[in-house]
Amino acid sequence: MATAVAPRVFKNFINGEWVESRSGKAYENRNPASTDELVGMFVSSTGEDVGAAVDAAAEAYKKWRLVPAPKRAEILFRAAELLVQRKEAFAKDMTREMGKVLDETRGDVQEAIDMTYYMAGEGRRLFGQTTPSELPSKFAMSMRQSIGVCGMITPWNFPMAIPSWKLMPALISGNTVVLKPAEDAPLSAYHLVQVLTEAGVPRGVVNLVSGDGPSAGAPLVQHKAVPVVSFTGSSPVGRLVAQACAPDFKHCSLEMGGKNIIIVMDDANLDLALDGAIWGGFGTAGQRCTAASRIAVHKRVYKEFVSRFLERAKSLKVGDGLDPTTEMGPLINEQQLNTVMSYVEIGNNEGAKLLTGGNRLSGGSCAKGWFYEPTVFGDCSPKMRIAQEEIFGPVVSVIPISSLDEAIEVANGVPYGLSASIYTRDVNRAFQATRDLYTGIVYVNAPTIGAETHLPFGGTKQTGNGHREAAIAAIDFFTEWKTVYVDYSDKLQRAQIDNA
Ligand code: NAD
After folding, report:
1. Taking the domains of the chain in order of start, what are their residue ranges?
2. What is the mean pLDDT of residues 47-65?
């Protein structure tokens, strides 16, 4: 007789222990490619759980801040090695929990590996400056100091990479952490925290609370003992986070939405531009902050580009990301599917030409998930809502343009400023675009996606609030500068007065 097996319940990690939520409640995490598969149950945390996690992190901070950074780095190196060993298993779990194809989830884990090694390397740097003082017998330097408990709120689309972008720089800098991962993809964050713990992160230094935004995220952001909040997600939620941080002047880093563009000039290598547009537009089913949801194509090559782009989009194999032949996976959930469907209706109503797609896929291997056809609108005007707003799905708006100046105006004419790309073989055009595109990231002859961990990542306007993730920029966010003057002259020396 078959026995019912209770699904695994993944708990919170607080002060070095896996613990139930005080709410006593848990929620289901289902595979978006096959919703009858339960990935696991995750606890629904409340303000009380968050409070316990923050208390643990505050207590652990007293010791962790004093551990020499090269020693903290040794733990990160071990964590990176464990991630390398478990990369394939973690990638498979990630595809099951959020749907993107295996090649992409392997890339997500790899990004966490790269970030962990990179920040471990920083443990022997964390450089400040020493500089001559303007006064005699006086020594001047600057050094970084850690800040305290960092609250981290992350989205579901890069469920291991994005937590690692926040955790590793915070930890190497001597801070402690409470992480609230996205409710749709907490398993990858769970794996990351497990690895850090096995690598030797002391109890209380990293804490994880699962649950939804209002019940678990908001109390973390508002908690008085959390001086640093690092958020990645949508712009509307980012605005709430910023408002919650403002009264206490918390350090608040926001990485939010995008409406990224690929510009295809008339001298572009069209084969290359097509590869980039397919990958940029439909990778992760368009659910990337850097997705190329707009393609501006020079009128001289518009017809040829569009007909070849449609051919490629139509032939993409959509299905379960665990199948190695699948090229595009599902949307994350029913709500996102409804959002995409409503934008397609908006596009139709505002007069854009639906060239391919526009339907939910529900037959064959797509029967049990949230699948949508790769969809292309042509002849879009740059002011249409589908060309202005983040859709976060496999919907690309193609906009005809007649010159580079016009393309740049179109590119910059949206509320977001994350990533932009230009395909051209003219070096002058490439440099003009690099100068004039007002985004945080510019690609030349490459699509809008593909960040490397040792370069700053983030965007302008409603994409961000001036901070950057990754690279040294991340260390800048998770530390405060302290300037130190040591006067060994044995007398009062007044700056700007005694040496004037
Ligand atoms: P989301 O804004 O819905 O959720 C992000 C996180 O915020 C989740 O953990 C959620 O639980 C939490 N949250 C929700 N309400 C909250 C509240 N009131 N207080 C505190 N936390 C709250 O975003 P999503 O759907 O998970 O992710 C998609 C969005 O993320 C897109 O807009 C995408 O562009 C953006 N994104 C940006 C970047 C970047 O680096 N710029 C990277 C990836 C994704």
Report:
1. 9-256+464-483, 261-444
2. 98
Instruction: Judge contact between 144 and 173, C-beta under 8 A.
Output: yes
Instruction: Name residues whose C-beta falls within 8 Å of residue 146's C-beta, 6 or more positions apart in sequence.
Output: 61, 65, 173, 174, 175, 478, 479
Using the predicted structure, report yes or no on whether residue 102 has a pLDDT greater than 60: yes
pLDDT at residue 5, as a whole number: 66
493 CB contacts (<8 Å, ≥6 apart)?
135, 136, 138, 487, 499
Nearest CA to ligand 1 atom 30: 233
| pLDDT attached to residue 177 | 98
Which residue of 160, 237, 239, 337 sits with most ligand 1 atoms within 8 Å of its CB, as the best mutation to test the pocket?
Answer: 237
Report the CATH number of the 9-256+464-483 domain.
3.40.605.10
289 given a catalytic annotation: yes
pLDDT category of residue 454 using cuts at 50, 70 and 90: very high
Ligand 1 centroid to residue 196 C-alpha, Å: 24
Q: Check if 255 is active-site.
A: yes
Is 425:267 a contact under the CB 8 Å cutoff?
yes
Residues lining ligand 1, judged by CB closer than 6 Å?
153-158, 180, 182-183, 212-214, 217-218, 221, 232-234, 237, 240-241, 255-258, 289, 390, 392, 418, 459, 463
Chosen CATH of 261-444 out of 3.40.50.2300, 3.40.309.10, 3.40.50.2000, 3.30.70.20: 3.40.309.10
Is the full-model pTM beyond 0.70?
Answer: yes
